[in-house]
Structures are given as structure tokens and as C-alpha cells.
Amino acid sequence: MKKLIFLIVIFFSFSVFADLLKTVPQKESILTGEELLVNVETLPGKNMSARFVKENSDLAITGIEPSADGKSLVVKLIALKNGEFEVPEIELSLDGKTANTASFRITSQSRTQENDMNLRDIKETAKIMEKDYTILYAAGALVLAVILFILIRYLLRKFRRSKPVPVITATPFEIAMRFLKEAREKREIGDLESFVDIVTNGLRTYMSVKSGRNYAEMTTYEIRRELKKDALFSGYGQMIADVLKTGDRFKFADEQLCDSDLDMIYSGFENIVNGIEKSGVNTNAVS
Fold first, then answer.
1. CA atoms 239, 245, 246, 247: torsion sign
2. Whether the predicted model's global pTM rises above the 0.90 cut
3. At residue 43, what are phi and psi to the nearest 5 degrees?
């Protein structure tokens, strides 16, 4: 009899929870290295993690946290390349229970203009209305959900124990290494425009997720001014400026860079990352 009840519960569980969780991205078009907030319509847990169901080299998950009102989740993503991508399903682990989000598409654009000297605020999460179900369907679903909740709660208490699950995110170092790998590949095939763009965007992105400051949205001038107040990168100010200014000469002044210039901006980015990581300084990076 107990086995029969268990099978009935599992059957109805698949029927009720087969739908993917609804995702509401902050916006559909972002800049490379810019953090995208994705609202997931499910209650948060005490122990949460998020990972892509399929391996993905175009995007990285940098964090997961409850929304401001505590009624949903916010997953943070970063685009590592330019182009139009389909964000695959994300597997969420909430206090030992798992659920997948629906996939969606976003466009990541290269940073090619630096005329805007003002930082842009993050837009509020878009609100999407739920479907209008009939009263009869809603009443039946509510009754079924209550019965399933009681049965599943009883079975979980008897047969399972929730275990804390660590948050699975990409560290600032891992994000930087992905940018460096992509830059090497572009230079090997002679795509110098993409190489320079990836190196400079990668440095801005690394600095943003490492320090918690919005370097990804700043111009080179604004970054040099902000570094005077950022103790984390104070010892690397000149090196950071050299990398970004050399990249600006190529992207905005149409100046052709020699091999030594290309070597300098790549090794500069790499040395900054290695130096910061070896120092072991605590930061406001994503945890």
C-alpha cells in the first residue's frame, strides 16, 4: 500500500511540476561583460545553487540571490562573447530540491562607443502577468496541490534529509581566464579587432566582479579617476591605464598596433589578474 501511494505521488508530481520555471530577464540586449539580472518566479531557499544544464562557453553564472521582496530569485549572468545567444535551461537547487528554468534569448553587443560619460542605472525587473485560468481549473489545481504538498512533505520527512548545497558560480579568476582563452584564439586566426575588444572588455569585467564597482560601464577616463578611490587596484593603476589606452588607440583612433603592443595588452591583463589573485585581498566579489 505504501509503495502504491509513493507511485501515485511521483506521478502527480511530474504532472504538476513538469513546467519549467518562468524567467524574466532584466533586458534582452546587453554589452559584453555587463551583468544581466534574471528574475525566476519561485520562492528562494536558504541553500541555493545554479548551473547551466548544458555546458556553455558564451555565458557565465556569477551569482544567485533572493529578490528584493523575497518572493522570487535573481540569477546573475555575464556574457563573455558578442552575438545573439540562447540562454539554456538553468538547474536550480533550493534546499535539496531541483527545478529548471525556461530558456530565453539575449543579444550581447561590443563596446564600441565611449561618448556616454554617465553610468546607466539597472532597470527594474519587467512584470509579466500570469495567465487567466478558469475558476474550475484553479480550484481543482489548488486542491490537488494541497494534497500533494501534504503527501510529499510526509514522504520527504520520512525518506530524505535536506543537505546544504554550496552556491556554484564562476569566480572572477575563472571569468578572466575565459576572456584570455578567447583572446588567444582570436589572435591566432588573425582577428585583431576581436582580440583587442575581448582583452579590454575582459579587464573591465574582471575588475567589476572582483571589486563590486561598475567598471564595465565606465570609460577609460572614468576608470582612471575611480582607481584613486579603489585600494584593491591601487598598485596596478598605470598598468590598467596602459592596457585600456592602447586598446582605445586601436578601436577609436584606427591606429595599427604592432606585435609588441598586442603582447603588452594581453600580458598586462594576465599580470593584473595573477597579481590580484595571489595577493589574496578580500573584496566585494560575487560569492
1. positive
2. no
3. -70, 140
Q: Residue 263 is which amino acid?
A: D
pLDDT in tens, the chain (287 residues): 555 555 554 444 444 344 788 889 988 888 887 888 999 988 888 888 899 888 878 888 989 999 999 889 899 988 888 888 788 899 888 888 888 998 889 898 877 655 545 555 555 554 545 555 577 777 778 888 888 888 887 777 766 554 454 555 789 999 999 999 999 999 999 999 999 999 999 999 999 999 888 999 999 999 989 988 888 888 898 999 999 999 999 988 888 999 999 999 999 999 999 999 988 765 543 33
Note whether 169 and 64 are within 8 A (CB).
Answer: yes
d(CA 197, CA 267): 15
Quickly list DSSP for 209-277.
HHHSS-GGG--HHHHHHHGGG-GGGGGGHHHHHHHHHHHHHHHHS-PPPPHHHHHHHHHHHHHHHHHHH
Closest CA to 75 of 116, 35, 133, 135: 35
Q: In what order do the strands lie in the sheet with 23-25?
A: 23-25, 35-40, 73-79, 59-66
Is the CB of residue 72 less than 8 Å from the CB of residue 27? no
